[in-house]
Amino acid sequence: MTYKCGIIGVSGGRANGHADAYAHIHRGALACIATRNRANLDAFGERWNVDARYTDYREMFEREKPDLVHVNTPPDVRLEVMQAADAAGIGALIIEKPLAIQAEDYLAIRDFASRAKVKVAINHQLQFHPRRQQLQNLVADGAIGAVRLIDASARMNMAYQGTHALQSIAGFYPQGRPASIFAQVSGASGLIQGRKQHFAPDATMAAIRCSDGASAFLRCGLNAPYVLAGDERTNVHKRIAVYGTDGYVHWTMWGWETSIRGRREHGSHNYPDEDILGQAAMTEAAFDWLEDDGKCHPLNLDAALLDFHILLKVYMSGLHRRAETLTSELQPGLIGALRQELEDE
Questions:
Q1: What predicted TM-score, i.e. pTM, was given to this entire model?
Q2: Are 241 and 168 in contact (CB under 8 A)?
Q3: What tens digit of pLDDT does each residue of 58-76 get?
Q4: C-alpha span between 35 and 41 (Å, rounded)
Q5: Most distant CA pair in the chain: distance in Å?
Q6: Domain 3-125+276-297 CATH class label
């Protein structure tokens, strides 16, 4: 079976990554696209040879009836798209990160998830990078022993690449459940009103203690480490290291390292090549889920909601200078409160 696939939002560069991945996708074809800007829509359609083009995604849902749709809208309209897709009987969505921005968004999406039929995954394609898969499998198979510490970071803020770093913790250690979250945040330039509405402090640091005794350390923004010496670009420094009782694994955008029972190995990889294969594998996993409800996508909406709940508690901890848990009430107007507090620093 060949699945009919579409993209909503093709005016930005991220949509090209989705389209390019279809050269490596065996069960699906890019058949329809939607974006509000007609010139951008036609330019993208010509580049990727897609004739079915719409300035209204609802019309695309109604006329094309795609099986799977990639959603590249700003965060503040993603719930609207999810609701429309569910009403139109769309099988699956792959939503660009971040899932949401505010606690209010999170609560509305959580309510939607409790009753929706459409299958939703979040586009954290790093989970499916070939090298990441190898390292994740080593950890899952017990090669490094019992996990004790995870160190994850990205030099872009939490709303841009920080959610990749946060999701990577769950990707390597899905059984971890936060018992307490203690964080610090600083800098308000990322909280200024803008077109993309990707609001986040400039720097975030969080210590997450799991109920089984393992811990995770998260750094996102200008306080995060570089992985390429001398490279000032903020978008090329995602990394994660997982330490166990028998060794560790370490992944960055450009290389990897393992040390298991005294044997050390390391190497390099090309991030763009890994990324396109990861995007394709993530989409194929959505097809698996469409075919079998038992093959739930690892980046499913419930998993993303848990990650975003952790993110919100990180912000609350940094704002109020106290440890938080997942059982405490979420604070309404959290981004506005952060903006006011950090602008006054």
A1: 0.95
A2: no
A3: 999 999 999 999 999 988 8
A4: 6
A5: 59
A6: alpha beta
